[in-house]
Every structure is written in C-alpha cells, then in structure tokens.
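Board notes (copied after class):
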Amino acid sequence: MFFSRPKALKDKGLLSMNARNVKYIGTYNPRHLFPNVDNKLKTKKLAEKHQIAVPKLLGVIKHQFEVKKIDTILKPLDAFVIKPASGSTGKGILVITGKQASEFFGVDGHSIQLPDIKKHVSNILSGLYSLGGKPDTAMIEALVHFDPVFDQYSYQGVPDIRVIVFQGYPVMAMLRLSTKASKGKANLHQGAVGVGICIATGKSIKAVQFNKHIKKHPDTKIAFDKLAIPHWQNLLRLAASCYELTQLGYIGIDIVLDKQEGPQILELNARPGLAIQIANGKGLAPRLEYIEKETASRSVNERVTFSQQMFSN
C-alpha cells in the first residue's frame, strides 16, 4: 500500500473518506442537485443546454416495450456505446467498435449478435446495473475515438482524465488507462492504471496500479515519464465550467479526448473517489483548505490560471 502509516497520511495531507463525506460533499454538494449528475441522461441534456462538449446522444430506451426500437436506432451505426443512465463504476457499459452485416463487434473483437444487445438493454431497464437496483434508462451514444497520443499507453479501452474541481477550481487530476487486467475498462478497482497529472503542465507525475507504483504500462511496456496530455488548457476550462453547470462545490469530472472533437465530458460524479491522491503522491486536503480561504470572485479562465499557479507538482 502506498500510504500506510498514520503519520505518513497526515504529512501527505491525505483526505480521508470521512472528511470527504462530511466536510466537502456534505457541506458543498446540496442533495437536491445530485440527480443532475447521478443520472447520466440528465447530465448530458444539461451539458448540451449549456453548450458543453459531450459525446453525441444517439438514442434513448426508457421502457421494455421500446427495446424493439433498437433495430431502427442501430441500423445506421457502425460504432456506439450503450450505458445505463444511473449506473456506477462502469457497470453495464457495452462498447461496440464495429459492424459487419448484422454482426457487431466488441472492444476485444468478439462477436455480439443483435439479440444479445437487446438482452443487455433489457437488463439495463430492469435495474441490473443501476444504483439500488431501481428501473433504469438505456442510453446509446457516439463512440469516442480517442486521441492517438494514448495509443501506446492503453490496452483496448478509451482512456479518460479525472479532474477534481472544488468551488470551480481544478485541484487535482489523473489519467486512467485500461489494461488487460481491467478488461479494457478505465476502472482502477479492476486493475486500470492511474497516472497522476500535474495541474500546471498536463504532464505525468507518477503512475500506480493496484495501489503500487509502476513506471511502465503493464501490457504495452511503454514508460510514463514522457506522457503529456494535449489540449490541457481547454480540458481544464471544460472541467472548471462544470461548477456553473452543476452548482456542486466538490465534484469529479471525467473527460475523454476525441481525436476530432477534442476534450469531451464523459461523466460527472458528486462523490468522486480518493485514489487520485495515490496516483499523484499528494493529498487533497491542503489544496481544498487553500481554496476554502479564497474569497475573490473569478471567471472560469481566471480560476484555471489560479489553480495552475498554485498547484504545480
């Protein structure tokens, strides 16, 4: 384990789950606003209304009797993603990367038939992947074609960047890279790699897998020391603007880099995890406490500039 002794935790300024829940989520995130981020369909529509970049919504299935509409929705599509509107930790996400005649293909090239897709959508509607097992909605959206800068750093899946934004200020970031162990998903709990990213420069700091430091991607064997995220300024501005979008004070922004569209919001999280601290080798607490003392009213661009000046790793 990276952080092990209590004194080391304190010295690193590590934010505990208790402090996160009580001091930050409980204080700065009004519960009546949670549905705007817990429900991905609401988030997408809200983002589109505010002209914030998100993957295009291609279709929505809300009821079991609508599952038959899948044939019509998917007919013109060669690649797409189906996900539950109220899912969590990546569960229930089906990624289709290609089609030949009536046969679809998943991330690893395996064949998926239309009846299998319909069954998956039906499972989403029944609440198999939703929070609390409640009936859910299936979303079909455009597949992100990730920036080739990550080709050597990820195994099959689409990498994403998690940015923690507090009171509109980006305070910490990490890149999540899929691996063979994570089955092509950028989920750290399943074995994805977390790469700490410097807020000031967009360059890598260090990387971890299963909470242990690594220097190279476990599958591609490419070192992380030269990794730098393109469009970094635009990405930070996109993340910071989600404060005005959601009115939530403490939030995790998941962003993907499309090779044609640039940074796009993939998901918002009102209860972001704390593994980002391990990936960065630094605690969130001092940065959050510093922002709490700020009283100046700043624009999105000014907040981004301020964060880059104050939180250089």
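Comment from the instructor: Residues 56-142 form a domain with the Dna Ligase; domain 1 fold (CATH 3.30.1490). The longest helix spans residues 17-28.
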